[in-house]
Each structure stands twice: as C-alpha cells, then as structure tokens.
Amino acid sequence: MSLREQLCEYGRRAVELGLVIGTSGNLSVRQGDLVAVTPSGAALDKLTPEMCPIVDVDGYLVEGELQPSSETPMHLAVYETTGAQAVVHTHSVFGTVVATTMTELPPVHYNALLLGGVVKVAEYATYGTPELAANVRAALEGKQAALMANHGGVTIGATLEQAFEATRLLEWLCEVYVRGLGVGKPAILTEEQLAAVVERSLNPPRFPRRP
Ligand SMILES: [Zn+2]
Questions:
Q1: Which of 21, 24, 53, 170 would bridge with 64, disulfide CB 3.0–4.6 Å?
Q2: Which residues are catalytic?
Q3: Separation of 26 CA from ligand 1 center, angstroms?
Q4: Strand 86-90's sheet: what is its strand order?
Q5: Is residue 27 within a helix (H) or strand (E), and if so which, with residue range?
Q6: Which helix (H) or strand (E) holds 63?
Q7: This prediction's pTM
C-alpha cells in the first residue's frame, strides 16, 4: 500500500471507530525525507490518495493540490526528534476529557507501558503553532503517546498501523481511567508493579511440550 493509500485506509478506520469526527484529526506517514499527510479540512473517511499532500521534512509541499493539515508542523517536529515513521492525532472523546482535566494520565493498567507508562499532557498552545509542536515534542520524549491540553491526543509508531493502534490504546486507557473515576478512586500502578510487568514480559514462561 502506498503512503497515501495508507492514509485513506486509516483515516476511514479512525472515523469508523469514532476516534475522529469528520475533519477533527490528522495522520501522517513518512518514507525517507518525504511525509504523506492528510489534507486540511477534509473528512478523514472520504479521502482519496490524490487528495493527500506530500511534504518534505523541511515543510515544503512536494506533491498534491490540497494544503496539508494545519497540524503538519507538529508532525514534522515529532519526526525531527523521534525515530517515528508515522504520527496519528485525534480529538477522541476520552483522550480529550483527560487532556482537559489532568496534567498526565496515570498508569492504571499495565498496558500503559506500551505507550511508555505515564502519558504526559502537553501544555496548551494554539493549534498549528510552533509552540504547540514544541510542547508536544517535549511531552513525547521517550514515549509513544502524549495528550495535548484542551485539544486531544497524539501517538507515534514505526508504521502507521502501530501509531494507529497506539491511538486506540491511548483512548482505551483514558476511557478506563475516566469511567473508573465515576465508580471510585482508580488505583495507580506503582513503579515496582510496572517494573515487574517489564521483567515478566522479558522472561515469558515457556510451556514444555508433553513428551
Ligand atoms: Zn487537533
């Protein structure tokens, strides 16, 4: 699948899963110095490959008639300082609830480790600005995900599929936490408990074959 085709596929899935309403999110995927990104102001479930602009890592438009997403500077800033090959940004409901009320998402489930543990909320700045890009970059340091204050979430991955799955996981973790708050006080996993999970995953039990 070409980079642009991938954007169409995951744009459609993002809308289908309710992670994105209409135009309220953007995706990009990188190959070498080129980045295919969703266009500004287009519904993510109605994209065609030709609609998706290609920019270079310096932010110059290389291909496409439509303007790249207004959040492209943030995507490029993330590529500049991480090994990411794909970036997914949405205004998903539970992610935005946490981003609007908290300064970080505490690890209430061990799957948070897949995103780097605690998910930080990047300080608020106007969408599309270099300030927001810098804040997101700082919050993403050593992580696969960050939240953006009063805005939404952003995840990265080695492929668009990985970045997309990270967005689904981030939304799930935020939903568990928010729903947990409605029931009682969610217990936060300790450093020790999280370290034990890492240890366990590095040394999985081997089941001996019955002779
Ligand atoms: Zn946004």
A1: 53
A2: 71
A3: 7
A4: 61-63, 54-56, 34-37, 25-31, 86-90, 152-157, 145-148, 119-122, 104-105
A5: strand 25-31
A6: strand 61-63
A7: 0.95
Strands 119-122 and 145-148: parallel
Q: Helix or strand or coil: residue 164?
A: helix
Q: Where are the beta strands (DSSP E) in 136-177?
A: 145-148, 152-157
Mean pLDDT per 10-residue section of the chain, whose length is 211 residues: 96 96 93 97 95 97 96 96 96 98 97 97 96 96 97 98 98 98 96 96 93 94
Scan for tokens 């990104």, then name that residue: 37
Provide the CB-side half-sphere exposure for 170 (13 A, CA): 38
- Say if CB 38 and CB 47 are below 8 A apart: yes
Q: Is 1 exposed, middle or buried (0-12, 13-18, 19+ CB in 10 A)?
A: exposed
Q: Which class for 155: exposed (0-12), middle (13-18), buried (19 or more C-beta within 10 A)?
A: buried
Give the pair of three-digit tokens for residue 169: 């996981």
Distance 20 CA to ligand 1 centre (A): 10
DSSP type of residue 110: G
Ligand 1 centroid distance, CA of 13 (Å): 17
